Amino acid sequence: CFFFISFEETPMLVAVLTYVGYGVLTLFGYLRDFMRQWKIEKCQNATERAEQKDFVPLYQDFENFYNRNLYTRIRDSWNRPICSVPGAKVDMMERVSHDYNWTFTYTGRVIKDIINMGSYNYLGFAQKAGTCQEAAAEVLSQYGAGVCSTRQEMGNLDKHEELEELVARFLGVESAMAYGMGFATNSMNIPALVGKGCLILSDELNHASLVLGARLSGATIRIFKHNNMQSLEKLLKDAIVHGQPRTRRPWKKILILVEGIYSMEGSIVRLPEVIALKKKYKSYLYLDEAHSIGALGPSGRGVVEYFGLSPEDVDVMMGTFTKSFGAAGGYIGGKKELIDYLRTYSHSAVYATSLSPPVVEQVITSMKCIMGEDGTTVGKARVQQLAENTRYFRRRLKEMGFIIYGNEDSPVVPLMLYMPGSNFTTTCHVLKIGLFVFSFYLYVKCIYVLKRS
Amino acid sequence: MDIKSLKNYLYWLYCQFELITCSYLMEPWEKLLFYTFNITMLVMVLYTAYIFVPVHISTAFQFFLHLLGNQHENTVSLVK
C-alpha cells in the first residue's frame, strides 16, 4: 500500500505535559530576564547599546526570548563539529561548556566511531576510499579544484557536458543542466520560469529554497494543504474560473511546486494524483527530488520510478547531488527546449560559478555506480539495502513505542520527542552509547545511513 | 532484590518528574528555587488538609445524617 502516511495524533497526556514543561521554563525565563534587566545577573546575550535604548527594540520579540532562555539551555545538542568524513561512522570533537552553553571550549579529545544518523548520506557514497574518491582525486590532479568562471563565460568544462548527458540518461529525460548549489538551483531558476501574471501553487511545507524562488519570481503564490489533493484541486478550479485577481484575465502559467520527499515530515508526495490534476487543468509541475533521487524506486531513479510513472509527465524535474550522491550541487531535467532556455536565462548560469571538477567526477562515478554502468552491482545492492534498512528501522522504532511520522518507505524518519527536557537528555545519552544525532528544534530527525561493517 | 528494584523505580520516577518539569535543564540555584517553591506549596496544602479536612468531613456527615437519619433516631427511642 503506497499511500500509508501516518501523522499520528499526539497523546493528550504528552501534549499537556509538554505545555507544563514549557510553562515552567517560560516562568524561569521571565525571572532571568528580570534579573538581567536589574543587573543582578550578567547579561551574556546580545543587547542594544545604551544610546540605542530609545529606538525600536531589537531583542524583545518572542523568538529572542526563546533563544535566550530556552534554546541556550539545550544548545549543545546542535551544531556539533565533526572531524572526519560523514560516512557510516563519524568522529566528533568533544566540547564542554562551563557557563551553561553560553560559550564552548574544546577539550582536545576526539570521540571516535559514532554511528552517524544525521547526515544525508543515503547510499553511503560519502567515503574517503573507493572508486569515487580515486576518480575524483585523478580529476583533481588533472583539472584542479577551481573553475573561476561562470557557466556562460569560461566555466563550461567537458566534464559538465558529460555530467549533464549522464543525468539526462539517468532520469529518462531529454536534457539536463547542473548547477553549483542545490539551494541556488531552486531559488535562481524558478524566477526564470515564471514571472508576474503567473500563478504558483505551492505545498504548505515546501523547502525554503522553493519559497524563496517563488517569492523572487514575482508571481502570485497560493498555498495548498500538505499533500491534500482536494485543496489543490479547489485552488486549481478557482484559478481557472476566476483568473487573475483584479482583471479576471486568465493566468499565463500555473506552476505546481511539490517535493518528492519532504525533509521535515518524511512524507512522499501523492505523485499520480498530482499528475492527473495537472493534466486535467493544463498546468505545469515542478518536482523537487532533493531527498528522493537515489533513495526511492527499485533502481534509485526517484519518486517517479517509485510510483511507476513516466518522467515525461513531470515538466521540470529538479534534484540535488548533495544527498544520495555524496557531492554538492543541483540539476534540472526536462525537455530540450526548456533546458536550452534555462541555459540562457537562468541567473545561476549567468552569475554563479559552475561546479568544481572533482565534485563533478564524484557525481559521475556514483551515478554510474547506481546505474550499474561501472560493471558491478554495488549500486543496486546499496539502493535495495537502503530500502530494507528504512523499513526495518521504522518497524523497530514503532515496536519500541515511538511516534514516527511519514510514509513507510521514506528514508527520512522524524521521531517525535515533544518535551524539551527529553530532547536534551536523548541527545546526551545517545552520544554516550555512540550515536550521533542531529536534532532540529522540536524534532529529532534520524536519517538512516547504510551501515557498512 | 525487591528493595533494589524499588529504589530503581523511584529513581526512574524522579527522572520522569525532572524531565517533565524541565528541572533537568535548570541551573542548580534555579532547581533549588523551583523545588523550594514546590515543596513549600505541597507542605502548605498538606497542612491545610490535615487541619480542615476532618472538620469538613464530620460536618458533612452530620448534615447528611440529619437529613436521612432523623427517622432512625425516632424509631430507636420508640423501641426503647
TrEMBL record, chain A:
Keywords: Acyltransferase, Endoplasmic reticulum, Lipid metabolism, Membrane, Pyridoxal phosphate, Sphingolipid metabolism, Transferase, Transmembrane, Transmembrane helix. GO terms for biological process: ceramide biosynthetic process; sphingosine biosynthetic process. It is an enzyme of class 2 (transferase). Its EC number is 2.3.1.50. Pathway: Lipid metabolism; sphingolipid metabolism; Sphingolipid metabolism. Residues 112-418 form the Aminotransferase class I/classII large domain. One of its GO terms (molecular function) is pyridoxal phosphate binding. GO terms for cellular component: endoplasmic reticulum; membrane; serine palmitoyltransferase complex. Belongs to the class-II pyridoxal-phosphate-dependent aminotransferase family. InterPro entries: Aminotrans_II_pyridoxalP_BS, Aminotransferase_I/II_large, AON_synthase_class-II, PyrdxlP-dep_Trfase, PyrdxlP-dep_Trfase_major, PyrdxlP-dep_Trfase_small. Gene3D superfamilies: Aspartate Aminotransferase, domain 1, Type I PLP-dependent aspartate aminotransferase-like (Major domain). This is serine C-palmitoyltransferase. Its cofactor is pyridoxal 5'-phosphate. The chain crosses the membrane at residues 12-31, 400-418, 430-450. It is found in: Endoplasmic reticulum; Membrane. It holds the Pfam family Aminotran_1_2. It comes from Accipiter nisus.
From TrEMBL, chain B:
Pathway: Lipid metabolism; sphingolipid metabolism; Sphingolipid metabolism. This is Serine palmitoyltransferase small subunit B. One of its GO terms (molecular function) is serine C-palmitoyltransferase activity. The chain crosses the membrane at residues 32-53. Component of the serine palmitoyltransferase (SPT) complex, which is composed of SPTLC1, SPTLC2 or SPTLC3 and SPTSSA or SPTSSB. The heterodimer consisting of SPTLC1 and SPTLC2/SPTLC3 forms the catalytic core of the enzyme, while SPTSSA or SPTSSB subunits determine substrate specificity. SPT also interacts with ORMDL proteins, especially ORMDL3, which negatively regulate SPT activity in the presence of ceramides. The keyword Lipoprotein does not apply. Keywords: Endoplasmic reticulum, Lipid metabolism, Membrane, Sphingolipid metabolism, Transmembrane, Transmembrane helix. It comes from the Eukaryota. It is found in: Endoplasmic reticulum membrane. Belongs to the SPTSS family. SPTSSB subfamily. GO terms for biological process: ceramide biosynthetic process; endoplasmic reticulum organization. It is a multi-pass membrane protein. GO terms for cellular component: endoplasmic reticulum membrane; serine palmitoyltransferase complex. Its main location: endoplasmic reticulum. Component of the serine palmitoyltransferase multisubunit enzyme (SPT) that catalyzes the initial and rate-limiting step in sphingolipid biosynthesis by condensing L-serine and activated acyl-CoA (most commonly palmitoyl-CoA) to form long-chain bases. The SPT complex is composed of SPTLC1, SPTLC2 or SPTLC3 and SPTSSA or SPTSSB. Within this complex, the heterodimer consisting of SPTLC1 and SPTLC2/SPTLC3 forms the catalytic core. Within the SPT complex, SPTSSB stimulates the catalytic activity and plays a role in substrate specificity.
